[in-house]
Design a protein that fits this description.
This protein has 11 helices and 15 strands. By secondary structure, the chain is an alpha+beta fold. Bound molecules: zinc ion.
């Protein structure tokens, strides 16, 4: 299991949600906690687990009673039942208990179950530590942060300067290190990019190819240290294997971050093909698909686009490989057997195409919304930005519906 998987179970991914005020967006900062706080956090995580397990047991008993009417306990009911419990705990306070109850109630509703999994505090199946808190519980104190009577120091402290944060949490990764996850509000930038639009084709040989011919090569993030991971696992060095997995994940994330930041800086509109990475991950190409990290790239482009005021849209990939981007004839290679063909010559117009760049160009063309009536309307590039973005949103929603 990778770190992303572990953290996403708490909804802690590095993402952004547009708030009601469209000029502000929320971004989650992930800051590493300095090591001297780990012992306290580990102990506090056990107390959080006890609260979670109490809520789990109590609400299960209410939902499946021996006699009488079954009841679904809300977060408010659980808060009343756990009132005063903070006196039994040394570290966590009532506000953390309320946040645990709220999270429990949300998840139980989400998964529609009478009982959720227990949070395990010891042994090989130990749950990764998690300590939620309300915004007011975390305070600045000089160079450090104060939470529940304990002072913490974090790396990259300068990112917190001048920010207003919301309810966040401390979370542990699979290697055992602690991270402070803090949603902060940020202003959406008004700057306009130099270039108008770009199409992106997601592939396996190159993770992405843009319609301008730029490529991000698949770095083989896992394959270069695969042997080391296998050796470590065979020798029973679990911790070392986990570290190597994390190294690979970080290398991939770094390459994707650099690429997506570059794209957002250059282009105003970004069109991505609608490949379903989840569906492809079930085929024999699974390893390459997971190594490519398309899903991560899409998420990054979407939240970075929101912060920078860009339009990111999902476009149907149908026939984009087969169509010639110059004359629109279906002369390209088709089918799984033809995957090896990297470049081809169009038999209709004689142009030479790179397979992935050609597909990216077609995605770019598809992203320019087709006019409803052919003929006399001005091209979309000339439309004012407000109109463009609303049309983009409509297209986005249509694409999402089609994907669902
Ligand atoms: Zn052609």
């Amino acid at each position: 299991m990778t770190i992303e998987n572990d953290l996403s179970s708490f909804g802690l991914f590095f993402g952004a949600i547009l708030t009601n005020d469209s000029r502000l967006c929320v971004r989650t900062l992930r800051l590493k906690v300095k090591r001297e706080g780990y012992a306290w956090l580990n102990a506090a995580a056990i107390e959080v687990n006890q609260v979670w397990n109490f809520s789990n047991a109590t609400s299960y008993r209410a939902a499946r009673p021996f006699t009488g009417q079954p009841r679904i306990l809300s977060a408010f009911d659980l808060d009343k039942l756990t009132a005063g419990a903070c006196e039994c705990f040394e570290r966590i306070g009532s506000e953390t208990i309320q946040r645990v109850n709220a999270e429990f109630a949300t998840r139980r509703k989400q998964f529609r179950k009478a009982k959720l999994r227990w949070r395990v505090s010891q042994g090989s199946k130990k749950s990764l530590g998690w300590i939620p808190f309300k915004a007011a519980q975390l305070k600045r104190k000089g160079q450090s942060l104060r939470f529940s009577g304990k002072t913490f120091r974090v790396f990259e402290r300068e990112l917190l300067e001048g920010t207003v944060w919301k309810s966040g949490c401390f979370a542990q990764d699979s290697v055992g290190e602690w991270w402070l996850c803090l949603p902060v509000q940020q202003k959406v930038s008004d700057a306009v990019a130099q270039k108008e639009a770009v199409g992106l084709d997601l592939g396996l040989k190159d993770i992405v190819a843009t319609s301008d011919g730029d490529k991000l090569e698949a770095g083989r993030f896992y394959r270069s240290i695969e042997l080391k991971i296998a050796n470590a696992q065979r020798r029973g060095h679990k911790r070392q294997a986990k570290r190597l997995h994390r190294t690979a994940a970080r290398r991939r994330k770094d390459a994707l971050h650099k690429f997506s930041t570059k794209l957002i800086a250059i282009y105003q509109t970004i069109n991505i093909g609608d490949v379903s990475s989840l569906r492809l991950a079930k085929t024999r190409m699974a390893k390459s698909v997971l190594d490519a990290g398309w899903g991560m790239l899409k998420t990054q482009l979407q939240y970075k686009g929101q912060q920078a005021g860009r339009c990111v849209q999902i476009v149907s990939e149908r026939n984009t490989t087969r169509t010639c981007s110059s004359c629109k004839a279906l002369t390209g290679p088709a089918g799984l057997d033809m995957l090896v063909i990297r470049s081809w010559v169009c038999s209709a117009c004689g142009d030479t195409h790179d397979r992935d760049v050609n597909a990216a160009r077609n995605i770019l063309t598809a992203g320019r919304c087709p006019p409803s009536v052919c003929g006399n309307e001005p091209p979309l590039a000339a439309a004012p930005p407000s109109q463009t973005s609303s049309r983009c949103e409509a297209l986005d929603q249509r694409a999402l519906k089609a994907a669902a």
